[in-house]
Structures are given as C-alpha cells and as structure tokens.
Amino acid sequence: MYLGKVLGSAVCTCKDEQLQGLKLLLVTKIDAEGNPKGRPFVACDSVGAGFGETVFLCGGSEASFPFIKQRPPADATILGIIDNFEDR
Known about the structure:
single chain, mainly beta, CATH 2.40.50.220, 0% helix, globular
C-alpha cells in the first residue's frame, strides 16, 4: 500500500467492459510529508474519494480485489481516505 493525493477525475467514453461503472481518478503518489513522488496515474476508486483528498492505494493484481465480481484490469485502486496522520 502507498499514499496518494487525488488530482482530478478521468472520463473515458471507450474503455474495457470490466471498467464500466467504476469511478476513475487521477492520482499522484506522495511521501509522508505530502510531497509528490513520480508521475500522476489513473486509479479505480472503491471508496468515493474526491479532488484534493489524501488516500491510500494498493497496486498490482491486488488492485482488482475490492471489485471481486468485476475483476477489472486495474493497476491501482483507492482503498481508503485518510482523515489525519498521528505521530507517535
């Protein structure tokens, strides 16, 4: 799992049938301080995330697990929205 920041949404009129009905968001990975790392990418949203939110994601074959009945061809899926961080 890794952290990300939602930059916007991606709208695709032509897409794989297994992606029908899934919300696609443009995300960038971030480090623990919130600084962007790498290039933005498209992720499937399983929790209703929105613009500007800090999220945690999974990648690889596990990215399709939240959509077990659809099993979309996804490389990244948003699994949760982070409300706050706590240092200990």
